[in-house]
Every structure is written in C-alpha cells, then in structure tokens.
Write a structure and sequence with these properties.
The structure holds two protein chains of two kinds. Chain A has a single domain (about 40-150), classed as Sandwich (Immunoglobulin-like), CATH 2.60.40. Helix content of chain A is about 20%, strand content about 35%. Chain A is built from three helices and nine strands, in the order αααβββββββββ. Chain A has helices spanning about 1-20, 40-45, 50-55, and strands at about 60-65, 65-70, 75, 80-85, 90-100, 105-110, 120-125, 130-140, 140-150. In chain A, the strands form two sheets. In chain A, strands 1, 3, 5, 6, 8 and 9 form a six-stranded mixed beta sheet that branches. In chain A, strands 2-4-7 form a three-stranded antiparallel beta sheet, with no helix packed on it. Chain A starts with a helix and ends in a 7-residue tail after the last strand. By secondary structure, chain B is mainly β. Chain B has strands at about 5-10, 15-20, 45-50, 55-60, 70-75, 85-90, 95-100. A four-stranded antiparallel beta sheet of chain B has the order 4-3-6-7, with no helix packed on it. In chain B, strands 1-2-5 form a three-stranded antiparallel beta sheet, with no helix packed on it. In chain B, a hairpin with a 2-residue loop joins strand 3 and strand 4 (about 55-60). The chains are: A alpha+beta, B mainly beta. The interface of A and B includes residues 28 and 80 of A.
C-alpha cells in the first residue's frame, strides 16, 4: 500500500514536470517574458477609452488645450512617425501616445518623474491613416489631445 | 548582442535634454517572413534613464514603437560631465544599459 502510494505520488510529480517543460503554447517560438511592471492590459486596449481605463481612469478623458500634440499632417512612411507631446497641465505624471487604428492602440507611455519636463518625443509605427492621441494623467484626472495623421505607406508590417 | 545605444545629453541653461537612439528590431508580431510565417513579436517593453544614479525617466513601450527607437526628454538641472545611463528590457527578458556624459 505504501509503495503504491509512493509510486502514484512520484509519477504524478513527473507528469507535472513534463507538462511544465512543454507547457509553452505552440505559437511561441521564444518564451515571451513580460518586463516587470509592463501594463499588459493597457497595451491590449483597442481604443483611447480602453487604454485610459487600463491606466486607471474612472471616467472618460477630457480634451485639453493645455496639452500640445506634435504629429505630422501626412506621414510618408508609416514605419517611422515622429510624435511629441508637451503637457502644460499641472501635476502631469504620465504621457501616452495612442493610435486609434493600430492593432495595439497604445504605442508608448512615459512616466513624468518630478523634475522631468512633461515634454517627450518618440517615433511610432502607424498601420494606416488614423487619429493619434496624446493621453495625459495628471493627479487622478485624464486629458487628451488629438490629431488626424494621414499615412501614405502603412507601417505595421502587414 | 545588440549595438550600443546612441545617447546625446546636452545641458542648456537650467535643463538638460537627452536624445536616445536605441538599436532594436522592435518586431510588431504582425509581419510575415518570406515563407509566410508570422515573425513573433520582439520588442522593448520598458526603458528608463538615470542622471548621476537618480531616475529621471521611465517609459513602457508596445509593438507600435518604431524599429531602432528614438526618444527625447528633458529634465531640470544637469551640467557637463554628469552621467546619464539608459536601460531597456525587452519581451524576451534581454536587457541592456548604456551610459553617456552630459555635454
């Protein structure tokens, strides 16, 4: 009886060990390891509202003239679109860039640490012409500015 | 591994402006290779910078940040000779840190 219990228990453990080692989903060639603190829910968002909610908003972001979004009217190459945002809203702690029509709407989110200017720039990919939003968190309120960017050559790889 | 980041930090008046050009494929996970197979997503997820060891910037990136990503930010203070260090972590768990001196 004891021997059977022992064998049953150890074979169960081996089965678990094997399951864990081949537990990667078939489509993942290299195990994806999300960086600590990476807000997966925000990057899965499909709209400005989704992203804002995943960042902690409890009500819809409000458009603000104190948030200046720099983006071209026409982007020749959707692979590299320079965008920037300057927030004059007091207490800005986060600036994010959201591309409405991209498969993953949230492109990037910058934390504004005390002493750092609420003024950031980066290059993003746009799959097609779309509204581009700068989304700002200041205190516990959320604000946005929007610009329509036309893309002549889409850049998400499709 | 990857090529070094190009970091340019310039002190002007009471602030320092930092420009970073990172070397990274930033695969969106949408692209198909010549054989028609989807190339898996491979991209920097978090990036941060310190000034003489003090954090001055951190960001989370998704697949829509361009290949060989660029970013620019500025902070109060800084003078020539100060150290800027930038570190990134990607979705394969790889990371890299490069340093530069403020001009």
């Amino acid at each position: 009886m004891e021997r059977r219990d022992f064998l049953a228990r150890s074979s169960g453990a081996t089965a678990v060990a094997i399951a864990v080692s081949v537990g990667l989903p078939a489509h993942a060639q290299t195990a994806a390891v999300n960086a600590p603190g990476w807000n997966k829910a925000a990057f899965d968002g499909k709209s400005l509202a989704d992203v804002a909610k995943a960042m902690g908003a409890t009500s819809a972001p409000v458009e603000s003239k104190d948030l200046v979004l720099r983006a071209p009217e026409i982007a020749e190459n959707g692979n590299v679109v320079r965008v920037g945002a300057l927030s004059n809203i007091a207490g800005t702690t986060q600036i994010a860039f959201v591309v409405e029509k991209n498969p993953s709407a949230l492109a990037a989110s910058f934390d504004i640490i005390a002493g750092t200017d609420a003024n950031v720039e980066t290059n993003i990919k746009m799959g097609q012409s779309s509204n581009v939003y700068a989304l700002v968190k200041a205190g516990d309120k959320y604000y946005y500015a929007v610009k329509e960017v036309k893309v002549t050559l889409g850049g998400c790889g499709g | 591994m990857s090529d070094p980041m190009r970091i340019r930090a310039q002190a002007q008046g009471d602030k320092t402006t930092v420009r970073v050009l990172v070397s990274h494929e930033m695969e969106s996970g949408q692209r198909r290779d010549a054989a028609g197979k989807t190339v898996p997503a491979w991209f920097i997820q978090s990036i941060s910078a310190t000034w003489n060891g003090k954090p001055v910037m951190s960001a989370q990136w998704g697949t829509a940040v361009s290949k060989n990503p660029y970013m620019q930010f500025s902070f109060k203070g800084g003078k020539a000779g100060d150290k800027i260090a930038v570190t990134w972590v990607d979705n394969r768990g790889d990371k890299r840190t490069d340093e530069a001196v403020v001009a």
